[in-house]
Amino acid sequence: MSEPSERSERVGLVVPSSNTTAEPEFRAHLPDSVTIHGARMALESVTVDELDAMSDDAARAAELLGHADIDAVAYACTTGSLLHGPGFDAELEERLTEAAGVPAVATARSVVRGLEALDAERIAVVTPYTSNLDAKEQDFLEAAGFEVASIDGRGLAANTAIGALTPDDAFQQVREHVDPAALDAVFVSCTNYRSLAVVDDLESKLGVPVITSNGATLWDLCGAADLAVDGPGTLFNHDR
Prior knowledge:
Blueprint: E1 9-16, H1 22-29, E2 34-41, H2 48-55, H3 58-66, E3 72-75, H4 88-100, E4 104-106, H5 107-117, E5 122-127, H6 131-143, E6 147-153, H7 159-163, H8 167-177, E7 185-188, H9 199-206, E8 210-212, H10 213-225
Helix pairs in contact: 3-4, 5-10
Protein name: Maleate isomerase
GO molecular function, one term: isomerase activity
Organism: Natrinema hispanicum
């Protein structure tokens, strides 16, 4: 009788139901030996009310992923993990860790960890969001100790519309609305905004580090799970 094959490494993603970007972007940069397992929370529009309701489903989603014997889990939603201001991201990580029984990261906290790893202080932010969510994100980042030199949003609420944006859309938004002078980093927000593919090109054009929501979450998740990952951009040259 043959010996059972060695167990693969596994990561879990808790994502909004309408997110079509996080899993493909993670898959593109994880080793083939690592499998991705998703759980979804209901969300169609990126609004304060829907994001607030969605966060109530997070622990249950993480608990179910724990049944799959994952190595770590990520709450892959930026605004959903900063909605209630400073401390909510850390609280969310604690809730998911308890529910899944493995290390957990939440995108908003992952972004902060990534910017801190880069020693970034003055940053520019681009988003697909409406102005009220941009304001909440700016407040969160400033409370975390960063100077937000500029923030530009596309004004979109429907998450399918955000998911329909292309990496070139992200590239053009950054090039049109970010002045890299005196910046330490640029942050492209939203786990449903396809932008990870243009990080290297943006860093080459701007001369400063560029992080994205999915990039920061992937970097943080793999650090929490002690998994090797070769992602794009300066951030992946730093330890968690």
